[in-house]
Specification:
This protein is α+β, with helices and mostly antiparallel strands. It contains six helices and seven strands; from the N terminus they run E-E-H-H-H-H-H-E-E-E-E-H-E. Helix content is 31%, strand content 10%.
């Protein structure tokens, strides 16, 4: 994790009040849930059962010898173990369905729970696209800091940066400096999302139409804009740029 970066201050806020830690670590790694019981073979499951048998000649283990794998008793418990292995695999499948990043069969149930398809993301036809929408929806819960929004954008496949302009403060700011004067909205409630490498659609005579085609239009991702405006703190204004 890199050193903490200074969070832009609000009016009257102490300089050391808040710190913003950027998300340098890989977000939301897939949890490792695999163990010896997650996908046992028949022989392994048989071993669980035969280990519980009494010892002795009557049970095919005289003088603590290993049970003959070709004996009727061993083959009987191997057949039972096959069913037990299926049960263990089914139990492990239930564990996989407990997280959105590992689910296999319960996608529709998760979509109902999270109100998908989302109007910002639209209906998705493929399983991979639906999984992507679900993960974005799950990860958007509790989104409040710049780091949260940067991570949410990364989940959607976008690399962004966020700037929070400093308001102009008499006695502390310089004319012509970096601090900005307020416009229609207080600067301290504005944050700017920069999305690099977006196309620019220009007005071309003969192809464009006056009154309909803008003189210059940035090809900003509509799904990201919709998602951010739906998730942003209500008292803030988000501006998209390149």
């Amino acid at each position: 994790m890199s050193d903490a970066l200074r969070w832009p201050r609000y009016l009257g806020e102490d300089e050391a009040a808040l710190y913003h830690v950027p998300p340098d670590d890989p977000p939301n790694p897939v949890p490792d849930q695999v163990d010896i019981l997650s996908d046992p073979d028949d022989e392994t499951a048989e071993g669980f059962l035969t280990a519980l048998l009494p010892k002795g000649a009557a049970w095919g283990t005289p003088d603590n010898q290993a049970l003959d794998p070709l004996s009727v008793l061993a083959r009987f418990w191997r057949a039972i173990g096959s069913g037990l292995a299926d049960v263990y695999r089914a139990f492990f499948g239930v564990a996989l369905e407990s997280t959105a990043i590992t689910l296999i069969t319960s996608l529709e149930d998760w979509e109902i729970e999270y109100g998908l398809p989302d109007p910002c993301l639209g209906p998705e036809a493929t399983i991979d696209a639906r999984m992507r929408s679900l993960l974005m929806k799950v990860r958007s819960a509790g989104t409040i800091t710049p780091a949260d929004f940067i991570e949410l954008a990364a989940s959607a496949g976008y690399t962004i940066s966020i700037e929070e302009p400093e308001p102009f403060c008499m006695g502390g700011s310089e004319m012509g400096g970096d601090d900005e004067l307020s416009g229609g909205d207080p600067v301290e409630y504005i944050w700017i999302v920069s999305v690099p490498n977006v196309p620019l659609y220009e007005f071309h005579m003969g192809d464009a139409e006056m009154g309909i085609t803008p003189f210059g239009d940035l090809g900003l991702p509509a799904d990201l804009i919709c998602l951010f405006k739906a998730m942003k703190p209500a008292w803030t204004t988000v501006i998209f740029s390149v």
